[in-house]
């Protein structure tokens, strides 16, 4: 018998609940895999999700057929009108030409050139794990971005020097080199600007670029490394440094002025701009761990079990996730309000609006990559969800509430994205969706 849409079966039961399919049906489903939807849709199921679902329930063997070929032949995802989406694909490797995959934001050409130079990436890796960048030497970039946690820290809110807690969770880094804007609120226009943000933040590293550069120059290890990576002292502050941020530009100019009097020493090869470039190059080199999802994308149809395959189909269709989580990194790199701004309440966070003051950005936060998502909890910008199943249940209910109507209307009340709607997923379907997320 098939798996019923509202079955209470545990996920491990899915593997044994298969439905025999007549050969004619197999041929029909395979020939319609271009995304054309059937004339009738089962009650409660969005049109894009109708493939392999009938009144008796989900037909796993049918899904196997529909997803056995290339992605272009898979059932069409459920996409809202006006949404520009991209099909899933492998994450571009670092070895591929960087100008083809780095975001087209300020400094792209410089970042692309730096990523292609192993000495700069290796230097950035050393700096990323070095606590010298914080004022008291207590924390490094890796304190909040740990490789074993998908470059997050496992905490609801980031904790910096002197154990001061920030307002938001540490941002996952895998999508950083591909993103037009960075941080949860998009306040950084480039990766080089983003990597220096925590250095200056009083709740994170609580330092400044000038002080960090002076400290690095006093070490035995860094001057020769910077010299190897970048060459001798820069002649003047570069245009790239000026475009990074006023703070970096000022610190770079100060360091260059000092370097002019010590041009013959290796220490003069270190300045704030090169510090930012090295860190940005290392972050741009990060890639998610390979998983069975990557094997599935590569054509191994048996890489996912029945539970995970149903979860994949639900993710793309009835759960509506593809509206925001598409493309190689499973993110649209955009900003959305899913109803978690806590407007007018104690934990209010208005997201991108705080950086732009544009009312259209009220309550919007950047869509994170879902690559290796199961390792990156707790989830959401505020670490609100310690459990992925609880998060999926919240999405199933239509996510957070909007601010109550006011008379007169409140112009600052955030409005939840139209992409967020109740999903009508059964407990078994939520379990299948969770199983799929664990393969990413």
Describe this structure in words.
The chain has 440 residues and is mainly α. The two termini are 29 Å apart. The protein has a two-stranded antiparallel sheet with strand order 1-2. Strands 3-4 form a two-stranded antiparallel ribbon. The protein has 16 helices and four strands. Helix 6 crosses helix 11 and helix 13 crosses helix 16.
Short summary of the structure?
With 440 residues, this protein is mainly alpha-helical.
Q: What strand order characterises the main sheet?
A: 1-2
Residues in helices, as a percent range: 25-40%
Beta-strand residue fraction: under 5%
- How far do the termini sit from each other? 29 Å
Number of helices: 16
Low-confidence stretches: 1-44, 237-243, 253-263
Largest sheet: 2 strands, antiparallel
Per DSSP E runs of 2 or more residues, the count of β-strands stands at 4
Strand-helix topology:
Layout: H1 23-31, E1 53-54, E2 57-58, H2 60-66, H3 108-115, H4 118-128, H5 141-144, H6 191-200, H7 209-217, H8 222-230, H9 239-244, H10 246-259, H11 272-284, H12 292-297, H13 306-316, E3 335-336, H14 353-356, E4 365-366, H15 388-396, H16 427-437
Antiparallel strand pairs: 1-2, 3-4
């Amino acid at each position: 018998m098939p798996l019923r849409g509202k079955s209470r079966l545990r996920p491990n039961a899915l593997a044994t609940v298969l439905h025999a399919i007549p050969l004619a049906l197999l041929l029909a489903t395979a020939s319609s895999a271009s995304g054309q939807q059937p004339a009738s849709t089962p009650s409660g199921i969005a049109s894009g999700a109708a493939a392999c679902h009938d009144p008796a329930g989900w037909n796993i063997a049918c899904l196997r057929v529909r997803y056995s070929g290339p992605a272009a032949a898979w059932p069409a995802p459920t996409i809202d009108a006006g949404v520009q989406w991209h099909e899933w694909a492998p994450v571009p490797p670092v070895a591929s030409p960087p100008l083809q995959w780095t975001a087209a934001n300020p400094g792209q050409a410089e970042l692309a050139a730096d990523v292609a130079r192993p000495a700069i990436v290796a230097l950035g890796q050393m700096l990323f794990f070095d606590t010298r960048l914080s004022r008291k030497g207590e924390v490094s970039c890796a304190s909040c971005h740990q490789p074993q946690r998908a470059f997050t820290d496992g905490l609801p809110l980031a904790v910096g020097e002197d154990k001061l807690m920030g307002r938001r969770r540490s941002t996952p880094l895998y999508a950083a080199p591909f993103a037009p804007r960075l941080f949860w609120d998009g306040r950084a226009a480039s990766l080089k600007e983003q990597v220096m943000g925590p250095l200056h933040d009083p709740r994170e590293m609580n330092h400044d670029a000038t002080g960090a550069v002076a400290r690095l120059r006093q070490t035995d290890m860094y001057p020769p490394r910077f010299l190897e990576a970048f060459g001798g002292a820069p002649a003047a502050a570069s245009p790239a440094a000026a475009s990074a941020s006023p703070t970096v530009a000022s610190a770079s100019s100060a360091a260059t002025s000092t370097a002019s009097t010590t041009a013959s020493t290796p220490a003069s090869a270190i300045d704030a701009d090169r510090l930012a470039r090295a860190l940005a190059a290392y972050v741009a080199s990060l890639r998610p761990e390979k998983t069975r999802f990557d094997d599935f994308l590569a054509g191994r149809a048996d890489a996912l079990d029945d539970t995970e395959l149903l979860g994949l189909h639900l993710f793309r269709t009835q759960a509506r996730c593809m509206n925001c989580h598409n493309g190689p990194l499973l993110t649209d790199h955009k900003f959305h309000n899913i109803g978690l701004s806590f407007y007018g309440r104690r934990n209010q966070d208005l997201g991108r609006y705080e950086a732009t003051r544009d009312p259209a950005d009220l309550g919007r936060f950047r869509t994170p990559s879902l690559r290796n998502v199961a390792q990156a909890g707790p989830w959401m910008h505020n670490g609100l969800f310690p459990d992925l199943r609880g998060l999926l249940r919240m999405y199933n209910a239509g996510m957070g509430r909007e601010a109550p109507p006011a008379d007169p209307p409140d112009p600052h009340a955030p409005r939840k994205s139209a992409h967020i709607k109740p999903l009508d997923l059964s407990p078994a379907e939520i379990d299948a969706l969770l199983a799929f997320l664990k393969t990413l």
